[in-house]
Amino acid sequence: MFARAVLVALSLVVAGHARADEAFIVNQTGDSVTVLDLSSGKAVATIPVSGKPAGIALSRDGATAFVTSPEGRSLAVIDTADRQVAKRIPLEGGPLGVAVHPSGAPVYVADWYGSDILVVDPAAGRITKRIAVGKSPSGLALTPDGKLLISADREADQISVIDVASETQIATIPVGKHPFGVTIDQDGRRAYTANVESDDVSVVDLGMRKTIGTVKVGDRPYAVALAGGKAFVSDQYAAQVSVFDIANLQAAAAIAVGEYPEGVQASPDGRRVYSVNWFSNTVSEIDATTLKVLREMEVGDGPRSFGTFIRKTP
Amino acid sequence: MKVQFLAAAAAVAVIALAGAADAHGPTRQKTTKTIEINAPADKVWAVIGNFQDASWIPVVEKTEGTGGNDKGATRKLTLKGGAVIEEELDTYDAASKTLHYRITSVDVKTLPVNNYSSKLTVKDDGGKSTVTWMGAFYRGYPNNDPPPELSDEAAVKAVDGLYETTLASVKEKVEKGS
After folding, report:
1. Closest CA to B155 of B31, B48, B52
2. pTM of the predicted structure, to 2 decimals
3. CA-to-CA distance for A261 and A241, rounded, in angstroms?
4. Hey, which end of chain A has fewer CB within 10 Å, N or C?
5. Do B54 and B155 touch, CB atoms closer than 8 A?
6. ipTM of the complex
């Protein structure tokens, strides 16, 4: 009994002293990345990134952020602890969606002007392969075991399933109209796509290779976050985050946030969800249990953070 | 034979354009213009809050549409000079005096934008009111390296000009009428 009390007390102390998680907010028109301390809610650094950056992927260990610049046609490799761009890798087309393999490499970049996923070796700083998918690939996500890469092929109204080992498309699965963001659950069983033109989310069973449900959400959904058995969907035109229960696919709430929410992601502990509000230049912090907005934090101009942008600090 | 060929070529060009219209430049632009009007919000909303009557926009000659102020309502604006813009209503909230619509069809020669959406709000400010007009859009050229007339700057300039001229006109109209 006594030992347990000591343990609890100790863990409280440790929790109190741990560094806060951070959000890396990609400001497209601002040509920068704002680092938000999620404890204080304040910006602690601004990292210049040219070329109208939009997409982001954080490495699993949180040490590196990969940021795409569609206009600059390049990938910025950011050292998250140093708050600096360590390297710029020249790419081609319109690089937007980005994902990093759980092992740290390679990095996958979707060329939304074309029909290819670029496989990028971040250490060598070059494209090693182009994987053919459907037209205008947008969002990318990997299963947690690193075996499958999923791309939302916007103009093809489908997702592509890519075998990571052979670097080839092995299946396509029809979803709603113009899928943009794609998110995979922690078990690697389901993928959720936000379908911009049909105003819904497709729920895809990756094992069965088929869409098992469609959930209506608000106008112009952009991306999906998962936390506490619920899906949180950023609805750009509706300026809200739609919430539905992932067990029964029933709508649970619509939470008003800033104007044109785009990137959306849950905190590592699943207690908070963050929406990046492109028009308002803010990030809304949502309590994933009460479904209330806790605060709105100021960032740079035209924030998007399309991808994974929350860094669990060591 | 030659006529047929031209017609076929024209059809191909139309298809190519239709495909291009679906895409857009890489960086969405935004602008916000506000104006304070010395009149109650209800009075201002009565002028600008009917989706089926865009006569408060000076450049509009005629509004034709269906669906009233319901979500999904459409309207066709014929501008002075004959150009046409087609729009659709996304949200309408009379209580908060907010409407949100988007352009479904416009020639970039008329307005050099793609994927344009817009939100109009009237807020009461103690007997006065503030009108806020927000626009989000991509430039007219759907790819990298745009010609100057279809650049990001050209798109923002055109929308800014439209908002400023129109809001000034609304202010004048409402304040004179009161």
Report:
1. B31
2. 0.85
3. 8
4. N
5. no
6. 0.73
